[in-house]
């Protein structure tokens, strides 16, 4: 084995940069310090005891939560890979001599994001910057939903019936079954679509047509129909909206147009056994789908490049937090892509040792 030298870490990082480090590219376009006031404000009223070690940097912890979304790793796995990978350490601004936050610290940070609700503020903060820079254009919106699965529960039929009715099986509350109850998700639901069975939640999103950045989202159980969140996702800034046939319905359309009179709605039409679509309707659907299909690219990227739409948390509050962070993580990756392709301005502040994107 060759002898280590003091420049070994630097040489390895230089080699990673030459090969192409995606985290280095992200660091170069995201102004992480812009999130600091919001993160610090979320901890302002947190009780402080006497003594003890100083808190770990909030922005550092936030960046760890983003790593978890991009690579879909658990808290324990995050602790391991940060210790293991130089690229992760550089992304976080750490060196081999720095102590990596452990899994419990990572979990506690995300729990505070949940209890404070600050994850939505972080999501909105990023999008406001994108609108300010003209990246989010609001020229049109694409609406769709995707399943986000969680570990499947092995309950009896009687237990599932009680859960669906909004209750909790009485024997789960027994003193000796406290640990078991803590692992039961009573908010997630089963559903089936196209012969595929899903258990968990749904990420309902509104995507900016031009930039493919997620501008709004709602989280529900998996069995909630897509159309139930349609009206919640529309706002006064929408000029036109595209959606698939799941959002067809005169009642829904009338309710939305009553509030937003000038909104253009491009919804794919749906045929049925007794009334199939005409050739003209099929052609119109194809025209709408050429635009609407861009929203599928968003979920496709999350599924493939961000290691899948799967959560390891329990309960809809944690699911909403993690889905919000996943949506934000996607938006950051999308911005990096837009900058790299020359379709968005370079807007980040000085990021120290991070290299600028060329081309």
Helix content: 40-55%
* Mean model confidence by pLDDT: 91
Counting helices, strands and paired strands, the structural category is: alpha/beta
Low-confidence stretches: 350-359
Word description of this protein:
The protein has 359 residues and is α/β, with parallel strands linked by helices. The protein has a domain at 136-313. The protein is 45% helix and 12% strand. The chain contains 15 helices and six strands. Strands 1, 2, 3, 4, 5 and 6 form a six-stranded mixed sheet that branches. A hairpin with a 5-residue loop joins strand 3 and strand 4 (214-221). Helix 2 (22-29) crosses helix 15, helix 5 packs across helix 7 and helix 8 (118-132) runs parallel beside helix 15. The model is unreliable at 350-359 (pLDDT under 50).
Topology:
Layout: H1 8-19, H2 22-29, H3 36-42, H4 58-71, H5 75-84, H6 86-91, H7 103-116, H8 118-132, E1 141-149, H9 157-164, H10 178-182, E2 189-193, E3 196-208, E4 214-221, H11 230-233, E5 240-243, H12 250-259, E6 264-267, H13 279-292, H14 294-304, H15 316-340
Parallel strand pairs: 1-5, 5-6
Antiparallel strand pairs: 1-3, 2-3, 3-4
Helix pairs in contact: 2-15, 4-15, 5-7, 7-15, 8-15
